[in-house]
Write a structure and sequence with these properties.
By secondary structure, this protein is α/β, with parallel strands linked by helices. It has nine helices and twelve strands. β8 and β9 form a beta hairpin. Bound molecules: zinc ion (ZN). Zinc ion binds next to β12. The site of zinc ion has 7 residues, from β12.
Amino acid sequence: MKSVVVVFLLTLYLQAFDYHLVAQKLSGNVYCFFGKTENITKQNGGNIVNTCFIKTKEGFVVIDSGPTYNYASQAYKQMQKIAKLPVKYVIITHDHDDHWQGNSFYKSKGALLIGPRTYEQNVIAGMQTRMERILGKELYGKTKIVKLDTVVDDNVSITIGNEKFEIKQLVPIAHTKGDLIVYLAHAKVLFAGDLVFNDRLTSLRDGSILGSLEALKKIDAYHAKVIVGGHGRKTDANATIALKTYLSQMKKEILEAQDNDIGMEEINKQVTMPNFAKFKLYNVLHKRNVLDAYRELEMMEDDE
Ligand SMILES: [Zn+2]
């Protein structure tokens, strides 16, 4: 009896965190997993992110590999239910660690990894990631930082199974330095990474308000039918509106405040933007975003 209990407890312990991933079909051969619009916690296992995969005749192409090795292995299981095909490429949109920590899983399956140059700093530093710190050893599991096979500084196209993937840096700095988008021209599907957010607020901590607005303008110019952001479930042609409105209103209000000589210590009393208070993570991110934008816009004013 005792040994039965031990085996039972051991099975429970060894059972991996279940992400309950359900692939949503967005267009012919394009599928995505939508993460929660919240911060990373042990309860969500870091699944706060959207990741996608495209089925081609020769294999899958994955856009962003998600928060952990375990997440990627569960995503892979779902893909294999759709078709028994290998994952040929994994394209990473930007350097934030909720988007790429499934890389070591796909690498172990023989996929080639493509991403921005800023990702390489993680390989060099080999430091504990934010994800590892919050999730702890057990949930982080077999996750490792692995090198990219191809670094994209400007743009690269890959063709596989008659599908052409255009990978492009739209502006030097927007959400992060070197954000990449992936565009499928014939299907008019654009994977925007964190250049597009909806349902929740973005973070400007590693980016630029002006670069973000510029990138959103360039995304709109594609006139894509489907636009998938890194966070949030809205994926139609209007997916960019929420973030565009948030950032342009912030820019306008901060510039006005600066014209009225309102200093940095007063700015959060002024630019509260209550019309965005209903967005998730407003309480966590808004004040910091205003400060980051204030600094950037002040520098721009000084240059003039
Ligand atoms: Zn993100």
